[in-house]
Amino acid sequence: MSKKILIIGLAVLIAVCGVSTYFHIKNKVESDNNKKMYETVAEEVSATEESETPTPTKAPINPYTDDTPVSGGGIGGTGGTSGGNSQSYTTTMNPSANPDMVGWVKINDTVINYPVMQTKKIPDYYLNHDFYKNESVYGCPYVQANCDVDAPSDNVIIYAHHMNDGSMFAGLENYRSKDYWSSHKTISFDTLNKKASYDILAVFAVPVDESDKNTFKFYEFVNAYDSEHYSSFISKCKALSFYETGISAKQGDKLLTLATCEYTNNNGRLVVVAKRTTR
Question: Architecture of 2-276 per CATH?
Answer without folding.
Answer: Beta Barrel (2.40)
